[in-house]
Amino acid sequence: MQDSRGTLECPLCKIDQASLAKGTEVYALKKVQTLVGCRRVILQESDFQYQMLVKWHSLSHHHDCWVPLDWLRVFEPQRARAYISKNTLPKEAYLEDQRKPEWFEVDRAIACRRKFGYDGLCDVLASFDNNADFEGYEFLVKWKGLDYCDATWEPYFTEGVPSAVSMLVQRHKNTVRSPMNIDVMVPENALYNYQVQGLQWILDNFKSRRSVILADEMGLGKTVQVVCFLNRIIKGSLTTSPALVIVPKSILLQWEKEFDRWAHDLSIVVYQGDKDSRKCIQAHELYSSKGKTLFDALVTSYEIVQIDKAVLKKIKWSTIVIDEAHRLKTLDCNLASCLKKFSSDFWLLLTGTPFQNNVLELFSLLHYIDPNEFSDPKDDPLFSPIESERGLTIDEKIARIPEILKPRMLRRLKANVLKDSMPTKKWVEVPCALTDSQRDLYINILEKNYSELNSAIQDGTKRSLNNVLMELRKCCNHPVDFASI
């Protein structure tokens, strides 16, 4: 390549063609999925090489390998340019590995197929009911910490796969076995007395099919009580249908951990992720080859239950649990309209704040668990405005609310149930002096807004100084809160 000034050399021509040819041969059958690391390797005293840690498509992280950046520039130019534009290549010896240890651990096996000469999935029970030879099969494995869309096919002798396959076979066997009444015992001293009482209260209402609200104050273990309740009714054969648990997306993993701790034997499916992940769950985790439900409880978020309502409403649920149920405080919210199409014998609402602003929010929750009795707020003067002709006085409303809530809601406070085990709250104030940079910035903020502060004092009228006060507060917290610093 030449121009008027002489000969120019293309950057790609500087690449060792032999190494490129070797790399092409090694990686030809693989497709790059993402980059999960970077390093700078010293080859000789005056020579070095940038290498990228590559996650290959359809292969687990056990197959990740280091690939020269030069190879990526040739065969994956867009991916290489995108990485370089977002990251500064180090000028010294450097190693970055973004992978997490749990990504190498098997979470569960969800399907199987023959290695050779067979298209499609195998019937798990037909293939392995008699402890058949597993060597001729490979299994679709979900890895811990990763979504279902990252599941990969692995041979039986991969570390962690044999135990996951045993659980897969057991889940399918449970769908054809007759229910067995097992006496489920909570470990002694594992629950507080008030939690045992709450568990029994939920269980009694479930047996009478009366939907209720558990409104314990935040921190009293509503999640634990619900998990123990679901474990009791499923393992105790009080129901043959699965449970649906709807929670905020931010605490999905917390619910999964509580199920693992308090109901380890239950088959729990966390229904989340992108469209591909949810399709994978629908294909492998919901039903057996005989059309029976494979799971005991499905945990999902408000958003996903509305997106995939067409799939989830087809299932007959024994119990539907809604955490943070104050999301239903309006009668016409999208979530409430969606869940009215679901079928369940028992509804359990969890909230630490049954109503925050007015009694209409309470009516929304009552309408949701008992739509026949609480069909319209206009029918009951309790929920009418005080100024209306049919409205009750405040004292009359306060007297009626406990009467309505007693059979339908259980609420305990920390001050009442943890008197002996909860230490008295102590407030310790530690004064902190401003640093030099904070003091200078604080003075500058005051001087800049001197006229506004002064006019507010002289006029004697209320003026909004929220912006100034917020700036001063940010300065006291840390000066780097200001973008200009």
From TrEMBL:
Descriptive protein name: Helicase ATP-binding domain-containing protein
Pfam families the record matches: Chromo, SNF2-rel_dom
Subcellular location(s) of the protein: Nucleus
Gene Ontology CC terms, in alphabetical order: chromatin; nucleus
GO terms of molecular function: ATP binding; ATP hydrolysis activity; ATP-dependent chromatin remodeler activity; chromatin binding; DNA binding; histone binding
Keyword hit for Amino-acid biosynthesis: no
Tagged with keyword Protease: no
Residue ranges annotated for the Chromo domain, each copy included: 104-180
Keyword tags: ATP-binding, Hydrolase, Nucleotide-binding, Nucleus
Helicase ATP-binding domain: residues covered: 203-372
Annotated source species: Aegilops tauschii subsp. strangulata
